[in-house]
Amino acid sequence: MRCFHKNRGAISVFLVIILVPCMLVSSVFVDISRVQLSRAVAESSADLALSTLMTYYDYDLNEYYGLMGSCQNISDYYSLVEGYYDTTLHSRDVEDEEIRLLYQQVIGEAGGWLNHEEISDLLRIRNQTEGAVITPVMGADMYNSTILQEQVVEFMKYRGPIVIALEIIEKLQNDPGVKDLEESGENNEITKDKEEFYKAEGELLKEAYNVYWLTRHYTDKAGDNGEYISAEKLQEYARKLEAYRKAYQDIHRYLVGNLMNTQDLTEVYSHVTIDLNQYLEDYDETNPEIYSRIETSTPSPAATPAPGATAIPTAVPVPSEFIYYIDGGEVTKLLNALENAQNDFEAARTNFANAGSNLMSILPGQGDGEAYAVQWWVQMDKAVNTGTDYTTELRSKAEELARAYAKVQAIEKCVPGNDMPDNWEADKKRLISKTEEIYEQFLARDINANGDKYLHTVSKLEEVSKANIDLIRAANLRVIVDGQERSIENAIAYIQNQLQEIQKTVQEYESLLGELLDAKNGESAPIDKLSELTGKYASTLNDWTNSANNSSTDLAKEHREEIEKVKTLQDEDKDSTEICVEIDKEAVEEMKTRLSNIRSQYQIIDEAIEGMLYGGEKLSDMSNVDTMKDRARAEVRNDSIGLTNREVISYADDTFSRLFQPDTGEIAKLHNTGDNAYNPVMSPETWKIDTPELYLYMHRKFKD
Prior knowledge:
10 strands, three-stranded mixed β-sheet
């Protein structure tokens, strides 16, 4: 440590030794930095000078010839270039001596490049005492006529039309009509909006006229010049439809009670009768079923008598004759046959009476629990004639009785033979008498019931069939339609005709209103089109007004005055404007509502008629009873028809409700006919029943 403390000042000596070299090195670096900075300044100045030179051009050369020349002569050009470069360097606070060194440096570097064979020295920079000098490339200046001509021609291709147009515009600007030309854009817009307005006005007038006459066609037919349709008339139509349903119900009751199951009832029932005299003529003593005979015209002693004969005459008179005789066995056979025939007839009569006994307990009458006469007849006929045909059986037994009776009567005309039975004459008399009593009581044409069951049955059957024979024929069944009694055949045809006439009438009115209210061929309905055109009219007037208000031209002022006249209806010569102003959207909608209401009333009647069906058949197509019977078979079953009045009517009404449509409620439920909004009369002159004001206005304007 002491050793070190004794060497004081040693570091200072060292610093003195190294300080001189450090200062020298620092000076060198400072100079080098200044050189590098100067070089950057020179290059930057050169670039700036070149850029400035390239951005400078002579205005006149470029304007008239399209030449991007810096000056109009070369001396000025070089002076300008040299001045730019010199000014640029001086602007960097570079001294003149340094500027000359920079010139030398630039020239040195440029010279090295200029020795290269692919490089052309276009600037030809030279260093002189007074500054840098740039010399041009020979033959490359603007004095070269070829270059100048080519550049001028190329420029004028584009510049020429522009110059001409500018000259024309300049002349026009000095013309008095230039102002109008400048305002033409605004005026064109105003004029266009005006044209659109009057076009809309014309369309509105045309459609208003069309709507008026379409409405007039309806009102002429429905009112003043036509057949006159009213709310009362529509109500009458509705009442008629109800009446026709009632008439059909009455006809249906006849179908069920009198026509559906009466096809087998072709004539009045007659009880079984016979003509005994006719049978007596058929069965006399000459009938081979009764007699035996011998010929007596020639003597024939060897003749053999008939079996049972008591004697044979020995001589036969001339001319030839026969003797008719009957033996006891044949008499017994004939008497037994007559008695059996009487018993069989009585049995057949009893069977007949028993077959109808149930029906005889419920006889025809007017009470609900009494039998419906025709159906009693139908069921009685079915009881005694269907299955076991008791009438045929009774007639057969009566005929057998008559034949047996005639044979017994013929016995008296024969000569009694052998072995005649005891009391045969009394038995014969008794049987003949009884047969004659049966005939008088049951088989004669005129009979009297006298409490006998059979006689009571056939008497009632004859009475009922006779009283109702006409009521099983449609031509004789009658109902009341529209206050007049008609046959059901005529009633059906009449109702068909009336429905067709009513439907034709309302459809004609519907069609006339449809011309106003219905769209066709892709176009709006006339009344809707009129409504749209009122909006278009207002819109185009508003557009015209805005165009005129937004312009300050003289024409706009004139248009504003014209618009004011349109809005205030001051132009007396333009009646069309007044019409268009009066026809507004609200008025059109009011008229449309009224027309739609009227049409809805007609549609209710039309649809009601279309919906009146019987068994699926429209009443307007139903023309006769046979068609109606065919449709009724869909619900009516012959074996389901009852006996009593109550049962027949109930079944008829039940099946009618299933066959007839609509089965309940009002057939045609019209809107409130007391409300004039639905009144079909809206004449503009005679019958003004809340006629829309728009229609009244159009009538005043268009009627002539």
